[in-house]
Amino acid sequence: MDDLRRIDMNLLLTLHALLTEKHVTRAALRLHRSQPAVSHSLSQLRQIFNDPLLVRREAGLTLTTRAQVLLSPLEQALDQLNELIQAPQFDPRHSTRHFRLALSDYGTNAVLPTLMRHLRTQAPGISLAVSHAGREMMLAQLMDGEIDLGLGVFPERPPEVHAERLFEEQFACLADRATLPENGTLSFEAWLERPHILVTMHPDSANEVDSALAATGQSRNVVLTLPHWHAAINLIAGTDLILTAARRSMARITTPDLHIFPPPFTISDFAFQQVWHTRRESDPAHRWLRKAICESCQTGK
């Protein structure tokens, strides 16, 4: 290994050009260098290998026995170095990569159905391990390398974390149809009077709905807080409860007793994102998965 410190990549490339061309001027042209510079490199190479490498004969320069022995392993070494430097190729159809994703219950329902259909047809060897986490936990897991991707809403994130918008989301309200007026909506006052379900993994953390309410100087009566969107939806029928949540979480509701209607006050739309640590930025398999998730969100909307 110590001998390698005496030689650099440029000298190896010069050696290959000289042994291939058997001519200093042609080697210089091939390397886009001056002839004196190549001649100087040849002198260095002769010292390193303790061999003339190229000797003059009547027909021109010829390779010494040592140079002839060097040529084949030198070409192999340069090919291997070139493969090392080039970006690795990724073939989704034959990949067996395992990815760790963190999503909320909402993200699982909004993204996974379409994504899994895509993976089963395009990359059947890829596997996913999905865990549920809030946004703060996802960011911490990304920083620690515990997950490969997080999907959710991230108004703030560390500079080491990249983000890509998957889709724009709106809020909607869900209630038992029998508890609503004929027009299927509620006034702001009637909405405030009703009991509410809050879906969050961290009950003490701020959420978009209550922040929007606070801007109006109002608050609502939350009688149930739980972490699962799907469970919350199943609790609405036969009660006067109201769930105000992301519209996509209600997209697959087929129960005729339930009715979806717009909130009676302004709640800003939000971007649903995928986030990853910068250490994964150039990973071809990771890039492919991010693209697959993005495409799945567009086709599944």
UniProtKB/TrEMBL annotation:
Parts of the chain that traverse the membrane: none
CDD domains tied to this protein: PBP2_ToxR
Domain (HTH lysR-type) ranges: 7-64
SUPFAM superfamilies the record matches: Periplasmic binding protein-like II, Winged helix' DNA-binding domain
Pfam family, one: LysR_substrate
PROSITE patterns: HTH_LYSR
Keyword Transcription regulation set for record: yes
Keyword Transmembrane helix: no
Domain of life assignment: Bacteria
Keywords for this protein: DNA-binding, Transcription, Transcription regulation
GO molecular function: DNA binding; DNA-binding transcription factor activity
PANTHER family in the cross-refs: HTH-TYPE TRANSCRIPTIONAL REGULATOR LEUO-RELATED, TRANSCRIPTIONAL REGULATORY PROTEIN
Family named by the database record: Belongs to the LysR transcriptional regulatory family.
Protein name (database record): LysR family transcriptional regulator
Lineage start: Bacteria, Pseudomonadati, Pseudomonadota, Gammaproteobacteria, Enterobacterales
